[in-house]
Amino acid sequence: MSARLRENRLIVRTPEGVVFALPLAGPLTRFLAWLVDCGIVLAAQSALSGFLPLMGVIGADMGTAVAILLFFALNMGYGLAAEWFWRGQTVGKRLLGLRVMDAGGLRLQFSQIALRNLLRAVDILPGLYLAGGLACVLSSRAQRLGDLAANTVVVRGDRAGDIELPATVSGKYNSLRAWPHLEARLRQLVTPQEAGAALAALLRRNTLDPDARVRVFAAFAARFREKVPFPEEATFGLSDEALVRNVLDSLRGRAD
Amino acid sequence: MIVDIQRFLAAESPHWDELSAMLDRIDRDPAAPLPLEEARRFHYLYQRASTGLARLAGFPPDHPARRRLEPLVARAYAEAHSARAAGRRFRPLVWFFAEFPRTFRRRAAAFWVSLGVTLAGVLFGGLALYADQESKRVLMPFSHLMQDPAQRVQEEETAEEHRLDGGHGSFAAYLMTHNIRVSVTAMAFGLLFGLGSVVLLFYNGVMLGAVAADYILAGQTAFLAGWLLPHGSVEIPAILLAGQAGLVLGGALLGGGSPDPVRARLRAAAPDIVTLVGGVAVMLVWAGIVESFFSQYHEPVVPYWLKITFGAGELLLLTVFLAAAGRAGEGRA
């Protein structure tokens, strides 16, 4: 197993030879998550303060003692407990889609969570997490000092939900179907990388700026035309985007 | 190689959903045993998802299929390749009475360094105060220690009402939380290759040495021993152990001739550091209670011989505990 960084992503190569990449969280996102967590702790402290008068029933002294211990436990234990029970997440991290994980992709151990939280004592110095923030900026894995010692990283993107692949490719009339020899040539000449890139562009087409959308699909269409010259009847009246969609539909016939 | 992504997704998604549901179940109760059949099924699903991810290698990283499958394979990989022992239920008594002393002994070299640095500080502080009484203000930056020892002893022994009456609980809580914070800091400063912990231990030793010299020179040795020993016999070793944890951290960073890379050294040291700090926290809870409810009472309320015997007994018990507890299972640990 090996893990390395490339383009702000943690790349893990498993013993089975499979490679997966996880995007690393940057200092700003992490800072925002920390602010949310600070808010949670402050809110919890304020709620506890509301109960302080009730603690008077066990005596003023013991009530104060319990309050001191509760505040302490909340400050020291919130991050630790949340990250342990929520598998690397606090409320702030959950809201911002962040997760702490082992830098080698392995299961997060309690000692790692405890160490990274205890070492906040150094990361926070001289104030406002300056030491930790600086380390995060300088580190190739965006790790604060506690992460470096505990061998942890913070990754972006919580568990992804279901994949929404709309009928971008199928379910529509495909003029290329009438030309099976061209479809065969497409399957022979178009690489999986090209097909994957074209599909990704189709899936994201609604997020593209109109001009960019036209340019992107013009480039794909030109690429496919270059590989397989289509007769005019096959592409008459088709926009570049529709041509790309038809090409991908035709490629579906190829065996996995 | 995949071109018909939708057919691929239609065929694979049910398996990914099953794997995801299985991982969720494991997440909910990591300590629950995984039956053999279920483990086999998990392994099959993990391999199938891994193969799927390998087949998606030609697709861009932000492709929705990869965005779904990569975190899933990452979770399954972590589960498949991490030791199941990690999921064992935490048993606090076994941890404190066996694992903690074993860890202390395993990292004893760091403790001796911690003790040596503190003793050097004690010697320095004591000698500095002996040589220059004016250095008291610098060596002991606490206003309540600026007072003349003899005067303080007289005030404490003649007081009709104790200053902490009605405030023992909150004082104990303050002491616990403050000392635990100091201990965590002593450990955390080990990140500076152990140097930060050394400086804190030495400084702590200097203050201790100066206070001891101040009271001894004033002829108040019995008061000093009766005041410090009941809680100090646990609190001072706790600080030493926190320093030990910091030195273990610093040692893992420095390497000290170890052929392992720094990440492997830190991975090996992390559980020991956390165990030591956890043990220190427990010790400081006890020390806080003793300091607030017992140490602050002096003669004639509590005779010094009793306080000194109590403190010496605690120190003896602590020594035996750290030296011998958990030895029975040491070979298996």
Can you walk me through this structure?
The complex is a heterodimer of chains A (256) and B (333). With 256 residues, chain A is mainly α. Chain A folds into two domains: 2-156, no CATH class; 175-251, no CATH class. Chain A has helices at residues 27-55, 60-85, 91-95, 110-118, 120-123, 130-138, 145-150, 180-189, 192-203, 210-227, 232-235, 240-251; strands spanning 2-6, 9-13, 19-23, 98-102, 152-156. In chain A, strand 1 (2-6) and strand 2 form a beta hairpin. Chain A starts with a strand and ends in a 5-residue tail after the last helix. The model of chain A is unreliable at 160-168 (pLDDT under 50). With 333 residues, chain B is mainly alpha-helical. Chain B contains twelve helices and no strands. Chain B has helices spanning 5-28, 36-55, 64-81, 92-106, 108-131, 136-139, 149-158, 168-188, 195-217, 221-254, 262-295, 304-324. The longest helix of chain B is centred in the C-terminal third of the chain and has 34 residues, at 221-254. The mean pLDDT of chain B is 89.
Strand/helix succession of chain B: HHHHHHHHHHHH
Strand arrangement, major sheet of chain A = 1-2-3
Largest sheet of chain B: none
- Following the backbone from N to C, one meets helices and strands of chain A in this order, namely EEEHHHEHHHHEHHHHH
Number of strands of chain B: 0
Shape of chain B: elongated
Biggest interface between chains: A-B, 73 and 73 residues
Q: What's the quaternary structure here?
A: heterodimer
Give the arrangement of secondary structure elements.
The complex is a heterodimer of chains A (256) and B (333).
Chain A: E1 2-6, E2 9-13, E3 19-23, H1 27-55, H2 60-85, H3 91-95, E4 98-102, H4 110-118, H5 120-123, H6 130-138, H7 145-150, E5 152-156, H8 180-189, H9 192-203, H10 210-227, H11 232-235, H12 240-251
Antiparallel strand pairs in A: 1-2, 2-3, 4-5
Helix pairs in contact in A: 1-2, 2-4, 9-12, 10-12
Chain B: H1 5-28, H2 36-55, H3 64-81, H4 92-106, H5 108-131, H6 136-139, H7 149-158, H8 168-188, H9 195-217, H10 221-254, H11 262-295, H12 304-324
Helix pairs in contact in B: 1-2, 1-3, 2-3, 4-11, 4-12, 5-9, 5-10, 8-9, 8-10, 8-11, 9-10, 10-11, 10-12
